[in-house]
Amino acid sequence: MVIMIKNLIIALKLIAKGSRGYYIWLAVLGVFIFIGATSYIQQLRTGLIETAMRDQVSWGFYIANFTFLVGVAAAAVLLVIPAYLYHFKPIKEIVLFGELIAVTAVSMCLMFIIADMGRPERAWHIFPPPFGKMHFPASLLAWDFIVLNGYLGINLFIAFYAMYKVSHGKEYNMKLLLPMILLSIPWAVSIHTVTAFLYNGLSARPFWNASILAPRFLASAFVSGPALMLILFQIIRKISKLEIEDRAVFKIAELMAFAMAINLFLLLAEVFKEFYSGSVHMAPMKYLYFGLHGHTGLVAFMWIALLFNITAFIVLLVPKTRENYFTLNLACVFLIIGVYIEKGAGLVFPGFIPGTLGEIYEYIPTALEMNVTLGIWATGALIYTVLAKIAIPIDTGELRFVSKEMPKPVHPVR
Amino acid sequence: MNRKGIDKEERSKLLSRRNVLKGTAFGLASLAIPFGTADASVWEAFFQKHFQEMNEDEKKRVVQRLEDEYAKKFGAKFNIKTTKAEPGVLFGYGLDLSRCIGCRRCVYACVRENNQSRDPQIHWITVLRFKKGEKWVNDLEEAEKYYNPDKVPEEGYFYMPVQCQQCGSPPCVKVCPTQATWKEPDGIVVVDYNWCIGCRYCMAACPYGARRFNWGRPNIQKKEINQETHYLGNRPRYTGVVEKCTFCIQRVRENPGKYPACVEICPVGARKFGNLLDPNSEIRYIIKHKRVFRLKEDLNTKPQFYYFFGS
Questions:
Q1: CATH architecture of A12-396
Q2: Phi, psi of B189 (to 5 degrees)
Q3: Taking a contact as any Cβ pair under 8 Å apart, which residues of chain B between 250 and 289 contact chain A?
């Protein structure tokens, strides 16, 4: 017990210490979190009427961010597959940081869901009996509740178990860890599939009720998550002693190019089917790319997204630009923005535009929604910062906790 | 209609029973919360069970607590019924499109009867206007919801009111993650306003735009309140929960039953209502003798709401 408290103090001290830039970073996040929290309290007081959502467009910016972040959580898996199935060593060394991204992204997903709920204090109603009255297996939201929390649990376990063992100078038990790592692969696929099915299963919304939704969702997820990860890795590499090999970065970039190729192909298939057959179900697609009856709210965004995605795809495809850090980072930023638009607003809003009674209500999020969203993103950044702050020195061997046995110097186990 | 008729003796009995119940409730709640300083009813409301999981005693206690809560909030005496569905009854609705003149009287009669919020305004019925000769049914793309002429009906247009179709296989019920909405044995799709978590998945799933969300705090003036309510129907709602048409469950489940408010108010008799299981009912007559259709039949939701052309 005493040792545990001692170790906790060591960890807390570690988090509290840092360079000037680190403190500025924390302060900035603190301000955003404060703004987000006060806005959320305001929303709790007066209700979701503070948002621009209405009966016509009943899900908005929060759910768009949620959807994007479910995709980001895939990041870990794109590392796990080459690392553990193909034993690609350079990536194996950074899997931990990918898993921490998954933990962060799923936590943010849950925060966005809470922010979107009309009665968050009743969230426990979704638990299975005897607590709540979970509607399983009929409701895809019940499924999503299970897979998201399960994914969070698996990644927390892998990351913390590995960090715990290494930080105490012990070898970790691969017999325990490997099954969990392998389990995390189909589980990551499941969170995307279930989230896609959540929209896909609604015959009332022709835009979502297309079989291509889930595959497209998966393909774009394998782009946005790794893009975010690559940028984070470079930052970590710059500000810490952690070494991340170039080979690992370029390999991930290559995999992203394949995923983007599939995503663009599926988009083409979707666009062709809607516009060539030209049925009434074309309306949401038309709204997205050309505007509908003079409503053009998303048109500019969608074309920017398309332009960014195609540009980034070419950059990642050509080895010369892929292995140049300037163009690579540019491509990553493009992909994050591109997929954020496409898989966020571009996926959620047109499900409701036009509405089931033919009404077009153009949804533009309010300042309060933006603030709450910003607050959740800042909270996510804070979570990742703290996690990385502990994980980096553990990985480099700078941090070792005291345990009952005499501490002996051990090199980081990988 | 209201409770003024109750004599003094009955009222005092009611009060004393309420006190007893309150005492028991407080005792139970203080067991659950050791510090016990909080208002017991707050915790009782928080831990309130799903309506279908309650036994008769629990229902009574919840109704009592809600009546007290509403009395405090609105300064009016409410009666909250929990009348069950009658066996052998399956409600069906008929709407004669050749009669409807688009006057929206049904919309406002519904608002008054069912205690919808006046500010922000919530309507359970939407009347759509279509131009004659234009495409209409399926995706309802050309529907005009905000038509506002001096006089109806207008030359060259026709009208189609839409409300909850009380589907035979309701997509909204299927998707609800907490089973806060379900289909009653008499065919009415209801919501437990105390169990709904406000995720609005049902609104995304409904092909008829029939569900409404309380985006803000619902407001009704005291003098406009309808105090005769049903737990699953027109009792006052809360911020952050979903609500919808219940065929006026508080009226149609009475014995003798009353017509839904929209049926009663319709000046042209376009609205018909009855028991689909009774071969002699008006709705069965309509189905047998008129050519009926149901909205968005391609989605297989099997509405119990039949549109027809009477003439």
A1: Up-down Bundle (1.20)
A2: -90, 120
A3: none
Averaged pLDDT, A170-177 = 85
Could you tell me if B302 lies within 8 Å of chain A, comparing CB atoms? no
B40 and B166 share one domain: no
What is the value of pTM for the model shown? 0.91
Chain A environment of B142 (Cβ under 8 Å)? 358
Question: In terms of residue numbers, what domain contains B25?
Answer: 3-77
Largest CA distance in chain B: 69
Number of domains within chain B: 2
Residue of B251, B253, B247, B305 lying closest to B276 (CA atoms): B305
> Does residue B217 belong to the interface with chain A, where contact is any CB pair within 8 Å?
yes
Confidence at residue A404, expressed as pLDDT on a 0 to 100 scale: 63
Condensed to tens digits (0 to 9), the pLDDT of residues B83-95 reads 999 999 999 999 9
3-state DSSP helix/strand/coil % of chain A, to nearest 5: 75, 0, 25
Chain centre to alpha carbon of residue B246: 3
Q: Which residues of B34-63 are buried (b: 16+ CB within 10 A; e: fewer)?
A: eeeeeebbebbeeebebbeebeeeeeebbb
Same-domain check for residues B49 and B153: no
Give the model's pLDDT for residue A197.
96
Query: Exposure pattern of A158-194 as b/e (b: 16+ CB <10 Å)?
Result: bbbebbebbbbbeebeeeebeebbeebeebbbbbbbb
B54 and B114 share a domain?
A: no
